């Protein structure tokens, strides 16, 4: 299995002309990595604390369904925001740098596809469970066209609906933690955009978090918390991420000589 994975990886690298960043473009900075880790961890702890400390704004079932929808939309925002940010970075570079960056897109592309898979699986499994994808009546009509109307078609439709419901439930249960883990990984690594250039995660992170903040502001609060607590929590994430990004850009410039102008070849 390990050999097959290596061969597949080498195939994709060859097909995309992948060439990783040089050591000068992607220096190892453990302080930046630690700061990114603690920022992400504290954000998760704060989100869990807010839900535990205050009553929900809606019922438990509505909260769960709403969270599934919100998770899917948030993943969509992250995907779109990342594509826009990466595209803007590529367009701003010189033609030579643009070609170099394009050959390094394997990591971000794989991350984007992995994140998009989660909401897709959740939607498909939820539609199967609720019968929106294919109701028992639809299945009965299908089997009637094959076996003819009667008890056989009804039995086949019933068992197909039951099996589909069980499979849909299993996929839904599995897709939720998968999506959460993938979303955390993508946010922590900023969709592996450091594979393109070390400066790109710092430039892209504020765009993603402020996009999510705007969505949360429009969507409304999940808990009945006091406004000062709620908005402090909502603003804390984007402001801390933006501040950390400014610090990271400054550190890359002062300690490693990496600037936006040199990154773009200008």
The Cα radius of gyration reads 23 Å
| Head-to-tail CA distance between termini | 44 Å
How many distinct helices?
10
Give the strand tally: 0
Helix content: over 70%
| β-sheet strand percentage | under 5%
- Overall 3D geometry? elongated
**H/E order of the elements?**
HHHHHHHHHH
Would you identify the regions where 5 or more consecutive residues have pLDDT less than 50?
Answer: 1-19
The average pLDDT is 75
How would a crystallographer describe the biggest sheet? none
Give the class from helix and strand content and strand pairing: mainly alpha
Question: Overview of this structure, please?
Answer:
The structure is a single chain. With 266 residues, the chain is mainly alpha-helical. 79% of the residues lie in helices and 0% in strands. It contains ten helices and no strands. The longest helix has 39 residues. It is elongated and about 80 Å long.
Summary keywords:
disordered N terminus, 266 residues, mainly alpha
Topology:
Elements: H1 2-15, H2 30-53, H3 60-92, H4 95-102, H5 106-130, H6 136-147, H7 151-189, H8 200-219, H9 227-256, H10 260-264
Helix pairs in contact: 2-9, 3-5, 3-7, 3-8, 5-7, 6-7, 8-9
Précis, in short:
By secondary structure, the chain is mainly alpha-helical. The protein is built from ten helices and no strands.
């Amino acid at each position: 299995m390990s050999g097959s994975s290596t061969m597949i990886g080498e195939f994709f690298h060859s097909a995309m002309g992948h060439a990783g960043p040089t050591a000068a473009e992607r220096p190892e900075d453990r302080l930046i990595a630690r700061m990114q880790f603690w920022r992400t961890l504290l954000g998760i702890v704060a989100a869990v604390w807010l839900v535990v400390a205050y009553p929900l704004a809606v019922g438990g079932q509505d909260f769960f369904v709403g969270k599934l929808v919100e998770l899917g939309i948030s993943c969509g925002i992250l995907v779109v925001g990342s594509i826009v940010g990466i595209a803007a970075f590529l367009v701003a570079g010189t033609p030579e740098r643009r070609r170099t960056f394009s050959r390094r897109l394997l990591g971000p592309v794989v991350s984007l596809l992995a994140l998009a898979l989660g909401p897709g699986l959740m939607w498909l499994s939820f539609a199967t469970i609720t019968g929106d994808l294919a109701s028992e009546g639809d299945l009965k009509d299908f089997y009637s066209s094959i076996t003819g109307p009667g008890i056989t078609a009804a039995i086949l439709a019933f068992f197909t609906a039951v099996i589909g419901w069980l499979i849909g439930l299993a996929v839904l249960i599995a897709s939720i933690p998968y999506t959460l883990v993938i979303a955390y990984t993508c946010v922590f690594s900023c969709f592996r955009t450091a594979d393109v250039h070390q400066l790109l995660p710092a430039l892209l992170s504020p765009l993603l978090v402020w996009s999510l903040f705007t969505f949360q502001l429009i969507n409304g609060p999940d808990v009945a918390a006091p406004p000062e607590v709620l908005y402090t929590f909502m603003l804390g994430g984007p402001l801390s991420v933006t501040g950390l990004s400014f610090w990271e850009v400054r550190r890359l410039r002062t300690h490693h000589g990496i600037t936006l102008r040199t990154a773009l070849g200008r």
